[in-house]
Amino acid sequence: MYSKDEASHIRQSFWTTFGQYMAPQPSAEGVKVNWINYRTGIKHLYFRMSTDNRSATIAIEYTQWDEGIRALFFEQLETFKTLFTAHMGEEWDWQPNYTDDYGKTICRVSFTLREASIFNRNDWPRLITFFKERITLLDEFWSTAQYSFELFK
């Protein structure tokens, strides 16, 4: 078991390593991008990557507090579901009303890698590959789909 400080240091080290690994990778539009803090250009819309001692998850999260706007956003996103699934090459989990760790209801589309731990350095190559493949595909998808979401800016 790790102390709080040790666990924090390991997490920081992993994300620093991932950031360095991804730094040379341009976006689908050929520009430099901060992959860890990906900017979607839409307020309340985030591409999140997280990992812990059991799994890793990549997600599209829309955190708008207004339930009606959130539902409209999710409906718009669902119109891309077939295209999204084909582009990603796998079925993601689509949740219009997901409760996050803080008790806030958001809409979320996510994919999880099981049985991988950030605290096991032997798992880091799997975790980095998992995140790299999906965030770059997500970026490619978003580079064309984003224009359909401009009303949410």
Descriptive report:
This protein has 153 residues and is of the alpha+beta class. It has four helices and four strands. The protein has helices at 4-22, 67-78, 81-88, 124-145; strands at 45-51, 55-62, 93-99, 105-114. A four-stranded antiparallel beta sheet has the order 1-2-4-3, covered by helices on one side. It is globular, with a radius of gyration of 16 Å.
Would you kindly provide a brief summary of this structure?
This protein has helices at 4-22, 67-78, 81-88, 124-145, and strands at 45-51, 55-62, 93-99, 105-114. It is of the alpha+beta class and 153 residues long.
Cα separation of the termini:
44 Å
Shape: globular
Determine Rg (CA atoms, Å).
16 Å
Spatial order of strands in the largest sheet: 1-2-4-3
List its salient traits.
153 residues; alpha+beta; four-stranded antiparallel beta sheet; globular
Please write out the topology.
Blueprint: H1 4-22, E1 45-51, E2 55-62, H2 67-78, H3 81-88, E3 93-99, E4 105-114, H4 124-145
Antiparallel strand pairs: 1-2, 2-4, 3-4
